[in-house]
């Protein structure tokens, strides 16, 4: 999918073409290529690479395992993704986070830690692909990763070529050890390197909201973190999730706000809190990157992570990020318009006890005949009439689909 025309279109949007003269030369050189069908795709930047047309779904090692990664863990996780029904539910990326790296060889090529990944990343990617899944990897734009492994600074193209040769499908690029660097400049350079490496690779920016990436990252990446790290507790998850309001205009097919990976199933939240986490991320059209041990999930965790009606909201083809339409302190109502004209609605109770919350039909422009369905519990609830009231548990949610 990535053509010279696309690279050209990409560099026009980046900082590499700085003056009119080089623009003119580039234009003369590549003008004929712009007449190819791919040329039309390049004009809107990275978002048109046709990757991540819906928010990416997968798994990442960090939230549960931190630095304790190995090829055995990744293989077993891929097997569990298939056997648990996660793959069938839409999860496809198996992403290794920090600590897979060893050191560089004499030519400066990145080599995986031989103790943790004795077969190397290429063999692992082949194995993951044979299961119908995709492999993701992690690195850092600076000198070292957050855990002190080699970063890619000044090795951008070399490393992207290595990853492409290994068969990597998704790259998360962190922002530790980047003193004095400009995030837009560095990430644009990395985007150009990915394009030159010639393999379609989902590009995930992880600079924790520095320099408001939603303003520039949509043109160069598929997703970008909008906050610092999530933690497996309600207050941090809620802080991050509800903070996304106002960012909805920057998100859409091919380019997504990323409020960080899921903590569902890691044990630090109640059932209602995890239901809030999953429902809110779906309403936000957030990437659904599970962060628990897929090999030992409880049925409750598996049911929540694979809830088809909630996932359908997240993966809706229109790709509209939801927003808050009503708030009264810790009581919030969020709405996400869906492709078929219906709306996903979340009644979120952030108070410290249960509360009866009321959705007025006019808040979401619904007719009195609009039908209501409870998505978390798969129940039809009749029509809205003038309003709908439901008791929402402490830190919990009632998630609805409202259809005319
Ligand atoms: C940062 C990122 C995390 C994780 C760690 C790994 O904190 O935000 O998601 O990748 O680095 O070191």
General description of the model:
The chain is α/β, with parallel strands linked by helices and 404 residues long. The protein has two domains: 21-32 and 40-314, Aldolase class I (TIM Barrel), CATH 3.20.20; 323-403, Sandwich (Immunoglobulin-like). 30% of the residues lie in helices and 22% in strands. The chain contains 13 helices and 18 strands. The protein has helices spanning 4-13, 20-30, 37-42, 62-65, 71-83, 86-89, 120-130, 156-166, 183-197, 234-242, 271-283, 299-305, 308-314, and strands at 57-60, 93-95, 101-104, 110-112, 134-140, 170-174, 202-205, 223-225, 256-258, 288-290, 323-328, 331-337, 343-349, 355-360, 371-374, 379-383, 387-392, 397-403. The strands form four sheets. Strands 9-8-7-6-5-2-1-10 form an eight-stranded parallel beta sheet. A six-stranded antiparallel beta sheet has the order 11-12-13-18-15-16, covered by helices on one side. The chain has a two-stranded antiparallel ribbon with strand order 3-4. Helix 8 (156-166) links the parallel strand 5 (134-140) and strand 6 (170-174). Helix 1 packs antiparallel against helix 9, helix 5 packs parallel to helix 7 and helix 11 (271-283) runs parallel beside helix 13 (308-314). The chain starts with a helix and ends with a strand. Mean pLDDT is 91; it is low at 1-45. Bound molecules: alpha-D-galactopyranose (GLA).
């Amino acid at each position: 999918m990535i053509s010279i025309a696309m690279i050209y279109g990409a560099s026009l949007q980046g900082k590499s073409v700085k003056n009119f003269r080089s623009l003119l030369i580039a234009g003369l050189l590549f003008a004929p290529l712009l007449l190819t069908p791919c040329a039309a795709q390049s004009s809107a930047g990275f978002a048109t690479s046709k990757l991540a047309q819906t928010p990416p779904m997968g798994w990442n090692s960090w939230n549960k395992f931190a630095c304790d990664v190995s090829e055995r863990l990744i293989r077993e996780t891929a097997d569990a993704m298939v056997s648990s029904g996660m793959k069938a539910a839409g999860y496809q990326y198996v992403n290794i986070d920090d600590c897979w790296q060893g050191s560089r060889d004499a030519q400066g090529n990145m080599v995986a830690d031989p103790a943790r990944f004795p077969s190397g990343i290429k063999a692992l990617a082949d194995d993951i692909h044979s299961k119908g899944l995709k492999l993701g990897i992690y690195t850092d734009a600076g000198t070292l990763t957050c855990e002190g492994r080699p970063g890619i600074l000044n090795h951008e193209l070399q490393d992207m070529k290595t990853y492409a040769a290994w068969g990597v499908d998704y790259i998360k690029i962190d922002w530790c050890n980047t003193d004095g660097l400009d995030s837009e400049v560095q990430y644009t350079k990395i985007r150009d390197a990915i394009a030159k490496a010639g393999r379609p690779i989902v590009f995930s920016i992880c600079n924790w909201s520095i320099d408001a990436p939603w303003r520039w990252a949509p043109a160069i990446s598929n997703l970008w973190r909008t906050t610092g790290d999530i933690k497996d507790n309600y207050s941090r998850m809620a802080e991050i999730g509800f903070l996304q309001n106002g960012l909805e205009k920057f998100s859409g097919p091919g380019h997504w706000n990323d409020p960080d990976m899921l903590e569902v199933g890691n044990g630090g939240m109640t059932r209602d809190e995890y239901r809030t986490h999953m429902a809110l991320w779906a309403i936000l059209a957030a990437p659904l990157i599970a962060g628990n041990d897929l090999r030992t999930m409880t049925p409750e965790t598996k049911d929540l992570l694979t809830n088809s009606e909630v996932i359908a909201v997240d993966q809706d083809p229109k790709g509209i990020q939801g927003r808050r339409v009503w708030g009264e302190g810790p009581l919030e109502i969020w709405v996400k318009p869906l492709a078929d004209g219906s709306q996903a609605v979340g009644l979120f109770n952030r108070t410290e006890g249960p509360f009866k919350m009321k959705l007025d039909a006019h808040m979401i422009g619904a007719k009195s005949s609009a039908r209501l369905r409870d998505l978390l519990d798969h129940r039809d609830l009749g029509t809205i009439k003038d309003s709908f009231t439901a008791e929402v548990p402490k830190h919990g949610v009632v998630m609805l689909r409202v259809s005319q």
